[in-house]
Amino acid sequence: MKSIYAIVITPPENGEKYYSVRVPDLELYTQGKSIEDCIAMAKDCIGIWGISEEDAKREIPKGVTLKPEAAEDEIVTLVEVDFSAYREKNESRSVRKNCTIPAWLDKKATAQGVNFSAVLQKALVDIVEN
Length: 130
Hints:
Layout lengths: L1 E9 L8 E5 L4 E5 L2 H21 L19 E8 H8 L12 H9 L4 H14 L1
Antiparallel strand pairs: 1-2, 1-4, 2-3
Helix pairs in contact: 1-2
């Protein structure tokens, strides 16, 4: 399920390093080091909140405030969050896979203490992320 929410980004004040981010429709708050970071953090904040709401069997409200009130120095923008994609990307449960390798390679890797799961995970991440 995809939803769009308005966010309000407030620049750092009084020597602070971080921008503040507010999601008015959900009463959520986060922060970021830059505008780009604020947008990413807002999506992450909404995503975490949303899948927690789904897990608790509560309805996720749609964004309705597309032009929230903001001070002159604040930035208002929209972010899209796909809760299904967010859940899939952040699901951390492990699944068992069976693979076959040559006996000589198994013997050498085992003798060196190689963690087969870690090597396979790293190789797969390198392949799917690039």
